[in-house]
Amino acid sequence: MELNKLNEEETRVIVNKGTERSFSGKFWDHKEDGMYTCRQCNAPLFPSNTKFDSGTGWPSFDDSVEGAVKEIADADGRRVEIVCANCNGHLGHVFKGERMTNKSTRHCVNSISLDFQSK
Questions:
Q1: Which residues are catalytic?
Q2: Are 50 and 63 in contact (CB under 8 A)?
Q3: Going from the N-terminus, what domains does the chain have, and what CATH number goes with each?
């Protein structure tokens, strides 16, 4: 599989499972219609109509493209990591039961892990 070339900061987050600072990413307050895709492999991940303002400073989505995101329990058991199902690139974490939306799911994603395709 051919992957996009990543810069140092993208590699830190996507490959080495880092986190960008809240309110610093280009998509945390982005409101355009389209599809959020994986920065590393271009796979479609999150339709823009699933994005909501969680107040956390990271892009938050209450749903993903079916089969596009894998959930992996963190070693400490406190959080659940989410990765691209196509390339295993680190996206962020998923939180359930917070009741921020009707689906009560928050995919908390690093902007740097994403690209965007307008409708």
A1: 108
A2: yes
A3: 8-118 (2.170.150.20)
